[in-house]
Design brief:
4 strands; 173 residues; binds guanosine-5'-diphosphate; 9 helices; Alpha-Beta Plaits; four-stranded antiparallel beta sheet; globular
């Protein structure tokens, strides 16, 4: 659906019917993207160290299309929820403290084989083990401050995309 039609519907018909149509279009778009998207976050260290532009260039050069993107900052509750799978791990508090320590860039990226290809592009969790030329190899500081997040499965990509973005935040181009 075009942006102008979308704004026409929301401005002229700001009612239950309009909301319903937008929800249906959003669901159709997300169905088409299943298996082709990943969610990334450029983490607070990389944002503070001025790496947003270089990291986005690496992402574009690797063939990923940015479908939705924003600069934002996680609250403690946000970070605890996003990383709830790690709640029992010894590094959980450090992870939450770090992820809430400054702004991040969240984005949904589209490409065939998105999950696997993006994990290859970012490199191993510990930057000391990340392959030469990967984003973590080039820009990460430590295992906590490891520059970037990438979803680890198609299912988690859908959940993480919905965590950060609403249907209207996605663009086709
Ligand atoms: P990822 O998918 O490569 O980001 O790794 P995980 O999902 O396993 O972990 C989430 C984040 O927790 C990682 O990106 C690290 O920042 C952090 N983390 C993971 N393992 C460790 C660890 O053993 N020690 C510490 N300090 N942080 C860790």
């Amino acid at each position: 659906m075009s942006k102008s039609l979308k704004s026409h519907i929301s401005i002229k018909h700001n009612n239950f019917f309009a909301t319903k149509i937008l929800t249906i279009f959003a669901a159709q778009k997300s169905e088409k993207m299943a298996g082709k998207i990943t969610l990334t976050m450029i983490k607070p260290d990389a944002v503070k160290n001025g790496h947003i532009g270089n990291i986005l260039a690496d992402i574009n050069n690797a063939g990923f299309k940015i479908k939705a993107m924003k600069l934002t900052q996680l609250s403690t509750a946000d970070a605890e929820s996003f990383y709830s799978v790690h709640r029992e791990r010894p590094f959980f508090r450090d992870l939450v403290d770090f992820m809430t320590s400054g702004p991040i860039v969240a984005a949904v990226l589209e490409k065939d084989n998105a999950i696997e290809d993006f994990r290859k592009l970012i490199g191993a969790t510990n930057p000391q083990e990340a392959a030469e030329g990967t984003i973590r190899n080039k820009y990460a500081v430590s295992i906590d401050a490891n520059a970037i997040h990438g979803s680890d499965s198609d299912e988690n990509a859908q959940i993480e995309a919905a965590f950060h973005f609403a249907g209207r935040d996605f663009y086709n181009y």
